[in-house]
Amino acid sequence: MPPPNPGNSTKLPTKSAVYLGAAGLEKAPLGRSSDTERRFSWSFRGVVTTASYDTRDIRSFFDQCASTGSAEQHGHAQRLLEYRLRLVRSLARPQPTDVLLDVGCGNGHHLLALGPEVARSVGIDISPGMIESARASLRSFPSKGNLTFEVDNAEELSGVADQSVDLAICIGAFEHMLDKRSVLASIYRVLKFGGRFFCLTPRADYIWYRTIAPLLGVATKHLSSDRMVTHNEFFALLDEAGFYRTRSAPWTFIPKGDMPAAAALLLTILDAIGRRARLNSFRGGLSVCAWKGAKPT
């Protein structure tokens, strides 16, 4: 399948055009469910939401995911991996001379695939369990000299030097990060002038999250602190962090593992309609590549 249309290349809107109040991206923890509610959730209400209040909760959640193998839940694993990699290559265009940083790398499968295409790559994740899983895969990887995985917090990136990265990617992790402003500020700090940031994330204005799931009463959050953003919200955050232009495009994201089979079929049909009619809210995913400006003269 050919790479998707890269979408619009545009300057970011000004803060006066689209602005997020500080409360807009704060975590909103939910109360812990009773055992009865949790059993009910498994049967009728999508995923069971885990209460999450701080980074320790998030670390524990993903350590548990790592201990069970963190299998792909939303479709055929290899096809989905190849699709996401096509999106990275289409919008971000990794170069052989690039230093690549994977923020929220999970078990490392995206970085292991992209590593041979760049000069050096580093994956960071808040979960020691995920990093150990990535390192285990790396040990059997034929070309591993330029690949490393480290435990680090995306909000700080304390182990990454200023202006040392050409390309930072974040795939399927941004929605789980508590302080999105701090994450983007840290990524901006470690990027070289002219470097770029690529992100794949579910979009908050996806018809499933915005309309269908609330009507059906289906739970969609894995962590109570999960916070997805709309296209405009993401642009405002990037503008606030200092990024000066973006390319963006919708992508097919259907969280099949989080919903009844009938809902997954409906969303597959809506995605096909969305592709033809260019209705981005039917597509599920938001892909963005943003650039850090050139060094001031």
How do the helices and strands line up, and which of them pair or pack?
Blueprint: E1 8-11, H1 35-44, H2 55-67, H3 77-91, E2 99-103, H4 109-114, E3 120-125, H5 128-139, E4 147-151, E5 165-171, H6 180-190, E6 191-202, H7 207-216, H8 231-241, E7 245-252, H9 261-277, E8 284-291
Parallel strand pairs: 2-3, 2-5, 3-4, 5-6
Antiparallel strand pairs: 1-7, 6-8, 7-8
Helix pairs in contact: 2-5, 6-8
What can be said about this structure in brief?
The protein is α/β, with parallel strands linked by helices and 297 residues long. The chain has helices at 35-44, 55-67, 77-91, 109-114, 128-139, 180-190, 207-216, 231-241, 261-277; strands at residues 8-11, 99-103, 120-125, 147-151, 165-171, 191-202, 245-252, 284-291.
CATH topology: Rossmann fold
Structural class per helix/strand content? alpha/beta
The global form is globular
The CATH architecture can be given as 3-Layer(aba) Sandwich
Name the CATH homologous superfamily: Vaccinia Virus protein VP39
CATH structural class: Alpha Beta
User: What count of domains describes the coordinates?
Assistant: 1
Q: How many strands, which pairing sense, and closed or not: the largest β-sheet?
A: 8 strands, mixed
β content, as a range? 15-25%
The termini sit apart by: 43 Å
Helix count, DSSP H or I runs of 4 or more residues: 9
What value does the average pLDDT take? 85
The helix content, as a percent range, equals: 25-40%
| Low-confidence regions | 1-44
